[in-house]
Amino acid sequence: MTSQEINLHEQLKKYFGFSQFKGLQEEVIKSIVNDHNTFVVMPTGGGKSLCYQLPALIKEGTAIVVSPLIALMKNQVDAIRGISSENGIAHVLNSSLNKTEVKQVKEDITNGVTKLLYVAPESLTKEENVEFLRSVKISFLAIDEAHCISEWGHDFRPEYRNLRTIVKRIGDDIPIIGLTATATPKVQEDILKNLGITDARTFKASFNRPNLYYEIRPKTKNVDADIIRFIKQNQGKTGIIYCLSRKRVEELAQTLQVNGISAVPYHAGLDAKTRSRHQDMFLMEDVDVVVATIAFGMGIDKPDVRFVIHHDIPKSIESYYQETGRAGRDGGEGHCLAFYSYKDIEKLEKFMSGKPVAEQEIGHALLQEVVAFAETSVSRRKFILHYFGEEFDEKTGEGADMDDNVRNPKKKHEAKDELEL
Ligand code: ADP
Ligand code: MG
Questions:
Q1: Which of 89, 143, 225, 260 is a Cys-bridge partner for 84, taking CB atoms 3.0 to 4.6 Å apart?
Q2: Measured between alpha carbons, how far is 115 from 197 in angstroms, rounded to an integer?
Q3: Nearest ligand, CA of residue 300?
Q4: Distance from C-alpha of 25 to C-alpha of 54, rounded to nearest angstrom
Q5: 33 lines ligand 1 (CB under 6 A)
């Protein structure tokens, strides 16, 4: 079956209720439906899931979807089950299933009921699963969050590096689809090289977020007061403040509360119940601000986050982009304010000193880019997009005037002086 023979719009409407494809979705879907190895680079929220879900529903056989987080897999399976009367249409195969459940999953796959099978990479390495999957019809393998393959990505997972070998064992000619929101050329090369795909059709969406305003301010000992002032000037708006350490998260959340700002802390040191309560409070707008470590945000889809503040500068441009990207999802205002001091860079360097040398070198290189970004006097948007391998015209590009350097140009030496406060 080729994409010419199926009306993709009709299928889109039927399964997902949408009347239009978003961005490059249609091209990507055609590529997958036609059995090409396909590589998709789209920002978070770009609609990557649908790129493999729709072909999976259309094609004969079961699509295997590798995804790093059990919670994300569960959400997706529930969503897919919601569009069908057939519960077995999507399954998760992981270590939490008991024998009866595993039997049911395998039965549904064998009977051709299951169109999407979500697996964690470690489940895929299990011999009995490989044996089973060899014996059934697999439509393609989709690797979501494919940057987990690369050490240059922000979320490297060693198990991801064996995927190629396993896929080969399951079937030699299974098309492979890689999807990621990591736009750096380095990570992309790494992914394709590791997967051993030389013929992938690559689809890359623009990473420009024209509605986000980027601002970097020097970080002084008055940073908390600066943050409080900013929030008070933006009364009634919701935002996220990122700090590096749990301790700082707790302290800053308290400082804000004392100053009459409704804020809650969020970090991995809180128990699961408190975490999910604080997350819900933020989503339901019972509080304006969540002060968090990077543990907060994966899979958070609140469209009207109006500001993201970095109390501490992140460890890579990639992280900065991901975290600021949680602002203005609805296309409305999104103010991204980061506080920068070279001392924080030194601190980050120190954190890495116990790690293996290769990791330190990568970490150092990533940090140098952050320094260059924070200290630059040119368009920040141009800098970010260049980092992601994208051209941006700082005069005519969309959102060109949406950063501090463009609005208030400084001479280079002035910018430097200011940062040495
Ligand atoms: P990503 O994985 O790229 O971050 P998701 O797959 O989670 O993005 O999709 C983000 C949001 O976009 C979801 O809420 C999804 O329902 C929505 N979406 C995807 N495709 C379409 C479309 N064609 N029309 C409207 N909404 C869409
Ligand atoms: Mg996704």
A1: 89
A2: 24
A3: 1
A4: 10
A5: no
pLDDT 10s digits, 289-315: 999 999 887 667 789 999 999 999 999
Taking residues 140-160, what's their average pLDDT? 90
Say if residue 96 is exposed, middle or buried (CB neighbours under 10 Å; 0-12, 13-18, 19+): exposed
Which of 10, 19, 22, 67 should be mutated for ligand 1, with most atoms under 8 A from CB? 22
Summarised one tens digit per residue, pLDDT across range 14-58 is: 999 999 999 999 999 999 999 999 999 999 888 999 999 999 999
Distance (Å, whole) CA 317 – CA 313: 10
CA of 258 to the centre of ligand 1 (A): 39
Tell me the C-alpha distance between 223 and 242, whole Å.
13
User: Atom 27 in ligand 1: which residue has the minimum CA distance?
Assistant: 47
Please tell me if the CB atom of residue 44 comes closer than 6 angstroms to any atom of ligand 1: yes
Read off the tokens for 64: 């295997």
Q: Separation of 21 CA from ligand 1 center, angstroms?
A: 10
Residue the block writes with tokens 């293996």: 356
Q: In what order do the strands lie in the sheet with 289-292?
A: 212-218, 334-340, 307-310, 239-242, 289-292, 263-266
